Amino acid sequence: MSELFAAHGLRKAYPGVIANDDVSFSIDTGEIHALLGENGAGKSTLVKMIYGLVKPDAGTMTLLNAPYAPPEPRAARGSGVAMVFQHFSLFDALTVAENVSLGMENPPAASKLAQRITDVSEDYGLPLDPHRTVGDLSAGERQRVEIIRCLLQDPRLLIMDEPTSVLTPQEVEILFATLEKLRAEGTSILYISHKLEEIRALCDRATILRLGKVVGHANPREKSAAELAEMMVGTALHRPERELSPPGEVALEVANLTLQPANPFGTALRDVSLSLRKGEVLGIGGVAGNGQDELLAALSGEALCAADEVKLHGQPIGRLAPPARRKLGLLSAPEERLGHAAAPDMSLTENALLSANLRKHLSRRGFINWGAARRYAEEVIEAFDVRTPGPHVAARALSGGNLQKFVIGREIEQAPEVLVVNQPTWGVDASAAAAIRQAILDLAAEGCAVVAISQDLDELMEISSRFAALNGGRLSEPVPVDDSLTMERIGLMMGGAHDMEVAHNHPSQVPA
Amino acid sequence: MIRLEKRAQPSKVWTYATPLLAVVLTMLAGGLLFAALGKDPVLAIRTIFYEPLFGQHASFYLPQLLVKAAPLVLIAIGLSLGFRAGIWNIGAEGQYIIGALCGAGVGLAFYPTESVLIFPLMVIAGGLGGWAWAMIPAILKTRFGTNEILVSLMLVYVAEKLLIGMSLGLMKNPEGFGFPGSRNLAHYPSATSWIDQSLGLHWGVAAALIAVIAAYILLTRHMLGFNIRLAGQAPRAARFSGVNPNRLVVFCLGTSGALAGLAGLFEVAGPTGSVTDSFNVGYGFTAIIVAFLGRLHPVGILLAALLMSLTYIGGGIAQSQSELQLPAAAIQLFQGMLLFFLLATDLLTNYRLRLTRGATA
Fold first, then answer.
1. Given this model, what pLDDT does residue A308 score?
2. Range of the domain at A75
């Protein structure tokens, strides 16, 4: 195979941190190349340099043996480099075709473009109706819009950043089939992920980054997941241990909860019921946008419902606001770190005060004890190994993994009786994720009841004692997590692959 | 080429340096403006900024500085609380008028009785009047989701009509020979807000200082202030934390209304003395500029209000002085420049300028 792309000694420094240092690697034509590394290892900076978003301080790149230095993404796309981001940049109110056309340099006429979208989606087995409104699509379908937008440019190199984090197992299979087809046609793919099993199944070669430097290359098929993780982290990875304690009395009860969403593209909760005992971890899976945010809001108190639709220790709390629920021991950690769980421009001390004021007595008669707040922030930083110069730093200055450790730790250190977390390890590196999961399991072992909402099924299998799936705002009957719970069965609980067939009309949003 | 690069954290240095930079830039651009008008720019700038403070008539101008700055501080402090929380009270001018009418009404009702209780009653009435006027947009917003910017602004014009009606009707001085306007409260010992007129001291000056201190404590030490800042910076995080947005709207509009009402009462019972159809001179609107010029920070607002009243007094001198005779429009333009440069340089707090060589395609 011939070499398509090579990087030689790339270096990029930001004030106070060297994101990439002397990074060299190469990608062959028709190869799926994995880029592995913890959060903060420099993966994002590296792909941003390849995609022309960031200029390297030193080092060179070549594409097809010619010098390659894209000053901006448009130039990168012109050279045949395309990228699918982890966060989609789509307009909810526009159709698939309109969204695709917005991302193109010279979009063809609308009817022609729709035909091309249909052609490409059929060629690559990515079912997608160009006339549907993006706001109605599942996360997996939205990703297809992004992928098809890239494929319409006939890329030589396709960069994919954590593509499977939002997909059902069935949708992952569809994606992998597409990627393998692209590989067979000679397209190279740079695949970023922290899911090691995936990389072992899909990728031909892997480049491993740690602290901005290449620490090794490997053939992922010849290495075990544990070996890869060790290369990535530098030390043996600690697997969470589950200490099963007999479940205690019922702590949290939700009965026939029906709730309209706060925003027009949200999902209504329909007749959700669950009961959770002390010491239990209830894992709630489901593809993004099926009611996860709304369920968290209903439990945290951000959205109010009828009083006895939510009960804590038998006490109706449906009408109580978040502070009153916290007082009773029900704590929560939302998915979105910046702007929801934490205020981006406020310091960690202020963010500690944000949710821990009542339980940690950080104020008296409304007057804030800043010393106590700072000490609590320091306690969380210490206990959860948050890497930051100190509690005075603004939340937005922390890396995703570190901030996640902080916002989860902030709730756990308050000794909750019921903890609700949404996507506790989303976008977090392997070692931080393991630490967070261990902390959740330890909490459960101490008798706390935990609701863990996540799209990472491996994570849910690792920490949950029971599993249920959200699909279109309905919660399936929770089932025990044991050997009978196969990926196949989970996929069906989650509603299977969304729209396996190319849709020709607008199907109703709510499955019957 | 100049490029903007977002800072990881807002710059502490530039937060304080930008207002100074804005003042310097305003002096430069204002100087050019005055030069283009054929006036001596150095003399003009000197007249505006130096004359009131250190000139030969400074002892006359300095008390005026306090008198002009006090209502600006009171109103701007109240507004800044709402602005921090993303609640936009644009109608302080109306609340100022209603506060003055309510307070003056109490005073006039007791005339000519003398009692130490009259002035405190007037203060309460003034605050309540401004508060009630601000409750109209607050209730409409929380109940029906109306826009508080529009409602509060519209109510300014309603308040102005009421003012005219009162000065020509109910509150008209019965011994005023038919001229519009009420009795002069400044000459009614039990009702005047003057402490010492020759020093420019009245109770509004004292209240302004108290407001600065109270707002500083509220914002830096109290949960309510923390919630105000949180709601302004990250509304979703505020909801997660448990802040009730409606209560915040009521508190912020109510407080700013009450402070504006107090400012109106102190003004009508002292510096202006009587309720007339030309009682309001735009303090409620200028206070918006003062609030932003002071970075929505209590101490900043105090300094900004002093600076603003300096440009008023200095501008007044520059207009009347025979050598200069600057047109009033030029002075207003000069004050406008100040806000413009402040907002423009504000960018430096969150972004740094980077010079990059050559143009990228």
1. 92
2. 3-233
